[in-house]
Amino acid sequence: MGFTRRQEGALVYFTGDNISVPHAFTTRLGGVSRDHLAALNLGFHRGDDPERVLENYRILCAALGTAPEQVAAAHQTHSDIVLPVGPEELGAGVTSPRLPECDALVTATPGAALMVFTADCTPILLWDPVTGAVGAAHAGWRGTAQDIGGKTVEAMARLYGCRRENIRAAVGPNIGPCCFETGPEVPKAMVAQLGPGAEEDIRPVGEKYYVNLKALNSKLLRRAGVENLEVSPLCTACRTDLFWSARRMGDARGSQGAMIRCMGGIQ
Question: What is the distance between the alpha carbons of residues 46 and 38, in angstroms, rounded to a whole number?
Fold first, then answer.
């Protein structure tokens, strides 16, 4: 078990081996965007031609057996807000106006596809094979400190009757502990959320700290009751050949992300 690299034509993406419904942790490869946004930019706000971004969604959606009109994309602000998605929200942020502020989405609507965006932050996908409910969360360091992953699990349990021990989680590529250098505000926030146990995932070097967001989010998911968990080893800042990285590229970059489809219960 782990993560698998998949390729369809020029499109390259990763999947968690523990999640059986269609899903993807995207890379920067396989789209039609040009120049510094080449090639699979999924962000309409990056200065790209909107028609090229929409075509990138068509390419990704085709690989997952869906269409842009079935996608609901998060409107991210580094909050801890989890928004439920029903039929009326489909297309939001892609083919229709964007959703209200949120950094995680949940749904039990068959056919719905949830999308969150990253460019170093941690993407988390969740699936309950019994109810069929799915979730997607964007966890930057602020979202991690606010336990956005755990709150997404809580929303799935509260709204759709998911049993936490049934939920499967995949923590996707993000900026790794090799590259995520911070000041003291990040470790302080993590310890406030997780207690002294957070310190084993924080490495001090002089006046700076290197923080392992994958490990911290994994701890929070386990604390929320998730027992089946896969974690990608890939670092977006190390692998700019594969991923967009805000730390390495600044604003001259596109957006990647993670998408998951709801297929109904008992898979």
Answer: 12
Give mean pLDDT, residues 182-187.
98
Distances (CA, A) of 243 to 201, 204, 213, 250, 251: 23, 26, 17, 13, 14
φ, ψ dihedrals at 104, nearest 5°: -155, 150
pTM of the model: 0.98
Each residue of 124-169: pLDDT tens digit?
999 999 999 999 999 999 999 999 999 999 999 999 999 999 999 9
Q: Does residue 12 sit in helix, strand or coil? A: strand
Residues in contact with 67: Cβ distance below 8 Å, sequence separation at least 6, in sequence order: 58, 61
Is 60 exceeded by the pLDDT of residue 267?
no
Instruction: Kindly tell me the burial class for residue 85, based on how many C-beta atoms sit within 10 Å of its own C-beta (0-12, 13-18, 19 or more).
Output: buried
Is residue 258 within 8 A of residue 172, CB to CB? The reply is: yes
Q: Where are any strands of DSSP class E within 166-227?
A: 168-171, 181-182, 202-205, 208-211
Sequence-distant (6+) residues with CB within 8 A of 156 are: 106, 126, 128, 133, 135, 162, 167
Query: What pLDDT does residue 120 have?
Result: 98
Homologous superfamily in CATH for domain 3-261? CNF1/YfiH-like putative cysteine hydrolases (3.60.140.10)
| DSSP H helical ranges for 201-245 | 213-223
The predicted model gives 227-244 an average pLDDT of: 98
Distance CA 171, CA 126 (A): 9
My answer on whether omega of the bond before 39 falls inside 30° of 0, hence cis, is yes
pLDDT at 178 over 80: yes
Domain boundaries, the chain: 3-261
**Predicted pLDDT at 264:** 83
